[in-house]
Amino acid sequence: MDYSFPRYLLSKQSVDDRSLNKDVLSALRANLPQEPFRIVEVGAGVGTMVRRLVRWDVIRRAEYVMVDEMTENIEYASEWVKVWAEETGLSVERSGENQARVFDKAHDVRIRFEQADVFDFIQKNQEPADLLIAHAFLDLLPMPESLTKLLSLTKGLAWLTLNFDGVTTFEPTIDAGLDAQVERLYHETMDRRATGGDSRSGRHLFGHLQEAGAEILAAGASDWVVYARDGKYPDDEAYFLHFILHFVEQSLTGHPEMDSGAFAKWLRERRAQIERGELVYIAHQMDFLVKR
To answer: What is 5-291's CATH number, 3.40.50.150, 3.40.50.1470, 3.40.50.300, 2.30.29.30?
Structure first.
């Protein structure tokens, strides 16, 4: 199988749509300032969040700055904006390589694509946003020291979504002991990343945000729950599941505590479960809306 990270980000759109905590999203809608306003999204990927917020009519008139370190993601986002905007019935205008305007009579969203390390962007950013978005991103960073720097990007709100919180579940059970070992070791690799990370980021953010002087306006679970309907996964969610197993395989192959033969057999059976429409995948995560 060809493992494409942009395709993975696209494949999880429908999963994220279901998972985003609707109470926290309602609080975001209720607390947004009068439009037009400025948004900065860090770890923005290929632009699925700006698409979602326009499609859900959360934003109508805004400047939206997409920041991502991966050149591949930013290049894809810059081209894909035309596709999703036209699918939504919106017009698109380009101004230079890194800017686009998505608009109709009710919408006018100006998007800027920034390929940059998030901390480099923080250093050069001159204008704090009205809203900071970090989607499925904070659990990849060293905490709590990153939080104050990130919050400097907003003068008001921060919507911090899909922060992983210590539960990965694959069903049905293959071998209870092996399943538990895979989950434990996989989480430990998150905690030992050289670049930072926390497998219990969600629960720890309550304390980290308080220490950073942020007021929590709303918080709630945003679990990924993926399962087949009538033997088939919706949209491209089978690919999403294959990519999750790819993450697990990359993380644990060669691990000194893992029996390589048993792990290879476990991966084969999990992949076969996807093909049969049997695999259920659950990951526990947390969403926050905070105010500086």
So the answer is: 3.40.50.150
